[in-house]
Specification:
about 210 residues, 4-stranded antiparallel beta sheet, single chain, mainly beta, about 0% helix
Length: about 210
């Protein structure tokens, strides 16, 4: 409610770690390192806030969907403009400098989810694969730092959402089928070697974010 950042100590007590309030922030993404946060505001403005030093960096308004590298020193996101030909998946240092284009997005921006792996080998998932045999199947590409697909997952449904294992060697994801009332199913698969070759359905009907 107050827009401050907190930690929860070992006894469950909330402790404010900043005195800078961001009550109007619409979306907040915190780096796994706990050192940086990316904030998006309703007016389109974006900042990176350093939770250690209190410094903040303003990022371009046309950037969105931020995800940090494992150490918090880099941030990946989408650069979206009026002209789809200039839409791009990009990565920059967390102070907004040294920006590089990973891949053009064109009209597929909504099909790409920024999700950096802990080993920094994958920047995003792209739901632009070929139609698969079998009802409701999708092919999800894993996009690397060069904008190339280093592998793909064949998933049994839509609304794909994923989280990484701590080393980046495996993925836990959820999908759902409209024909089944959009009930989610949870899956676990490998993200190295022959990506997606070893997958297991977990008997738990929930979304991966939960």
């Amino acid at each position: 409610r107050d827009g401050l950042f907190y930690i929860i100590d070992s006894s469950g007590e909330l402790i404010a770690i900043t005195d800078k309030a961001f009550a109007e922030a619409e979306t907040v993404v915190i780096a796994d390192s706990g050192t940086k946060a990316a904030l998006e505001f309703p007016d389109g403005s974006n900042i990176i806030y350093d939770l250690v030093t209190g410094e903040q960096t303003t990022l371009p308004n046309h950037w969105e969907d931020f995800e940090f590298s494992d150490d918090g020193e880099e941030v990946a996101n989408k650069s979206i403009s009026i002209d789809p030909n200039t839409n791009a998946l990009i990565i920059s240092s967390s102070d907004g400098s040294q920006t590089q284009v990973v891949a053009g997005l064109g009209n597929n921006a909504d099909e790409v989810t920024v999700n950096m792996s802990p080993n920094n080998q994958v920047v995003a998932f792209s739901d632009t694969g070929q139609t698969q045999s079998g009802f409701g199947r999708d092919e999800i590409y894993l996009i690397d730092l060069d904008g190339e697909a280093i592998g793909s997952l064949i998933v049994e449904g839509g609304n794909f959402s994923a989280i990484w294992s701590l080393t980046g060697s495996a993925i836990l994801y959820s999908v759902s089928l409209a024909s089944a009332g959009d009930t989610p199913s949870l899956w676990y698969t490998n993200a190295t070697g022959s990506i997606g070759s070893e997958r297991e359905r977990i008997d738990l009907q929930t979304w991966v974010e939960k």
